Amino acid sequence: MSSGQESVFPEYETDTSQTSKLLRKFKETPFVPIGMAGFAAVVGYGLYRLKHRGDMKMSLHLIHMRVAAQGFVVGAITCGVLYSMFRDYIGKPKE
């Protein structure tokens, strides 16, 4: 972009690093990284248990793993929404 033109997206062209942007987002929505970490943990545990599943069919094992991962993410989203509502309406009531 030449110096004479105005920026189309000025909020994306700041001097902040990617790490500071990521930390700012985590502070704004703390349950998103918790949900992502939980999802990764459930999938990792499921892959570990895949080796020792015994007589259980592969499809049944994968369905259980998917349901557990989705349940963790939905739970984290629900907690995030409740936390956000508490912070906005109860923690700092508008006057």
TrEMBL record:
Keyword Membrane in record: yes
Main location per the UniProt record: mitochondrion
Keywords of the record: Membrane, Transmembrane, Transmembrane helix
Cellular component terms per the entry's GO annotation: mitochondrial membrane
Highest taxon of the lineage: Eukaryota
PROSITE patterns: HIG1
GO process terms (BP): mitochondrial respirasome assembly; negative regulation of apoptotic process
Coiled-coil residues: none
Membrane-traversing stretches: 30-48, 68-86
Alphabetical list of Gene3D superfamilies matching this protein: 6.10.140.1320
Domain HIG1, first and last residues per copy: 3-95
Subcellular location: Mitochondrion membrane
Protein name, as recorded: HIG1 domain-containing protein
